[in-house]
Design goal:
Oligomer: single chain
CATH topology: Immunoglobulin-like
Low-confidence stretches: none
Largest sheet: 4 strands, antiparallel
CATH architecture: Sandwich
Number of strands: 8
Pfam families: I-set
Organism: Nycticryphes semicollaris
Shape: elongated
InterPro entries: Ig-like_dom, Ig-like_dom_sf, Ig-like_fold, Ig_I-set, Obscurin/Obscurin-like_Reg
Distance between the termini: 31 Å
Domain Ig-like: 3-86
Protein name: OBSCN protein
Number of domains: 1
Radius of gyration: 13 Å
Length: 86
């Protein structure tokens, strides 16, 4: 059984203006594609025309496109039992 991935580089708070993109990044201790999920508040995010979710090795990136005031809130990233929020 492989060891659990942990978050080694936590999310940082991002300030964006309406209409801009907001980019959130965190880095894990190892490459894993399972058990990872982004949230805006309590809502799980999927990759679509408004949100882009990227994984490059251990780096996980969320891009919120053309943010509005409704996008204001806590972004969190979860892997297994570990969570980082900004």
């Amino acid at each position: 059984k492989e060891p659990e991935a942990t978050i080694v580089e936590k999310l940082k708070d991002v300030t964006s203006y309406e209409g801009e993109d907001a980019v959130f990044e965190c880095r894990l201790s190892q490459e894993t594609a399972q058990d990872t999920q982004w949230f805006l508040g309590d809502v799980p995010l999927q990759s679509n025309e408004m949100n882009e979710i990227r994984v490059q090795g251990t780096r996980h990136t969320l891009i919120l496109r053309k943010v509005t005031l409704e996008d204001c809130g806590t972004i969190s990233f979860k892997v297994g039992q570990h969570t980082s929020a900004a």
